[in-house]
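Notes, p. 3: input format for complexes.
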Amino acid sequence: MKIIAGPASTELAEAISVSTGYQRVPVMSKVFPDGELYVRIDGDVKGEEVAIVQTTCPPEQAGKLFQLSFMADSAKRAGATKVTAVIPYLAYARQDKMFLSGEGISVETVARMLKAAGIDEILTINIHSEHVLAQFPFPAKNMSAIPLIAEYFVKKGYKGAYALSPDKGAMYIAEQAQKVLGGNAGYLNKTRDRYTGQTKQTAEGLDVKDKTVIILDDIISTGGTIVGAAKILREQGAKRVFCGCVHGLLIGDAEKKILDAGVEEVVSTNSVPGATSKVSLAPLISQILKGAT
Ligand code: R5P
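Output follows (293 residues plus ribose-5-phosphate):
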């Protein structure tokens, strides 16, 4: 197998190449004066299985998806026998059902476009709802990085911390972290107005008084969910509050808002490269790619 380093994930691709021993194939990319995108795979992939590493996080999710599609097409034209797309953050995954009449299911449309471009299978991390994978036109694997995030907090000395999911539907995330942290776990109830997008969170029977709590979520976007959870934790007497997420989109001043709400540290993975991405996905992805060949 060879690792094609997509422009959005060059460092992650390099780390995966080092830990798997699979050769890294660089990609040259540029933007034409009219804004159209260009990529060229700068290496030989004839007769090879390839893994293209390309996250599709903001900004410019659509451009990153186009680059991925162009790389898949180029790899197939250059003779690659199988193209696996490693997409740590899969854009449009939150529109995974028709919430209102007149909507489509964006993530299914994205998957069909990727298939048409030449992608044979995908590997992604903490997709928002795993059930959508069954509708994809190719095999799709989803892995959780939550244990890695929990290990980060254990290494920092927070073994035994309380794992909190800010949404009952994502309690499995708190439970995955709990297995590593070894403390208790719980959740908040969260409801969302489908028209305004406004969310409301409430707590029932949380036992966090004087405890160190780590709020864990798959995605932080505006930070509103974490800010709301931190407020409830303060009201309930939590001693220290941290937060960990897989995909730290952290739009605008989201990180500042979270820190201002009393959260001591925000930790995310390099599915979205940035200041908070302190946990690398390279070990998890490498392990899967090694097992896959
Ligand atoms: C929603 O269901 C997700 O799991 C996250 O909780 C959500 O996307 C976070 O968004 P925000 O940071 O804007 O509250």
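The first helix runs from residue 10 to 20.
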